[in-house]
Amino acid sequence: MNFLGKNIVVTGSASGIGLATAEAFTNAGGRVILADLNADKAREEAKRIGKSAIAIPLDISKDDSIAVFALEALKQVGEIHVLANVAGWGKVQPFIENDAAFWDSVVDINFLGPVKLTRALLPGMMERRSGTIVNVSSDAGRVGSLGETVYSGAKSGIIGFSKGLAREMARYSINVNCVCPGPTDTPLFARVPEKYKDAFIRAIPMRRLAKPAEIAHAVMFFASGEAGYITGQVLSVSGGLTMVG
Ligand SMILES: NC(=O)c1ccc[n+]([C@@H]2O[C@H](COP(=O)([O-])OP(=O)(O)OC[C@H]3O[C@@H](n4cnc5c(N)ncnc54)[C@H](O)[C@@H]3O)[C@@H](O)[C@H]2O)c1
Question: Is the pTM of the predicted complex or chain greater than 0.70?
Answer without folding.
Answer: yes
